[in-house]
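= Paired protein data =
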Amino acid sequence: METLQNKIDFALVIAVHHANPNGDPLNGNRPRETYEGYGEISDVCLKRKIRNRLMDLGAPVFVQSDDRRNDEFHSLKERADGCQALTDALNAKDREAYAKAACETWLDVRSFGQVFAFRDNDTSAGVSVGVRGPVSIHPAFSVDPITIDSLQITKSVNSVTGEKRSSDTMGAKHRVGFAVYTTFGSINCQLAEKTGFTEADADLLKEALRTLFENDASSARPDGSMEVLRLYWWKHNCKSGQYSSAKVHRLLHVEKKTDLPREIGDYSIICDILPDLAVEEYGEA
């Protein structure tokens, strides 16, 4: 199948209702925020959710979390060693063939890229191959500074029989009451040619973004607490694009209509247009 021939830019508008969209392990798992108090969802977190959705859609994925894996492999090295095409390229010491086989095998590799750096436990030999992917995505930031609610929780049962702990053993969980986040991304045709990223791959990515929070529920993010309000998908008419990604991303304007927004209706979402640039919009009318 022919590789992607038209540059693509995209934007997501995300609503958070009483949830922790991305906890910071260095800050007691509180929702990530910038020094200015704006909420943040890291690009790594977004890619993890995209990969999970791609797996749900039946696409082969290399970087799988252990609780969502759909094969018998327990590590990236095991998964790489389980691919015969990669083993053959490694034995032939052909790094280009190794990268090509990886891109042909896994969608996330030909989308986001991957560094294959594994050492053989039995010998001093190993592999070090880098793949640069065509899909880039920004961290998501809240439109306004966020307010974080911290809740005390009570442990009412013992973890181990005979454990002497009273029922008032306390912990804490944190959540964002309500906030709207935006994130942006692009797909580069020149890099798509190198990894073999196709139009069909782009369509799968678009569907993954549109349904980003399906099957993503947890105690920190109950079902319905994370929502994709809008997905904007700009398809340029050439490989390099008529406009820069920065100019396209600035078309999106999300602004609050009240001093203390508490629901989606308290924000206006407007997307401007540029001449001869097609856009697909998904979400509420």
User: Anything to note?
Assistant: The chain has a mean pLDDT of 92. Residues 12 and 276 are 21 Å apart (CA to CA). The radius of gyration is 22 Å.
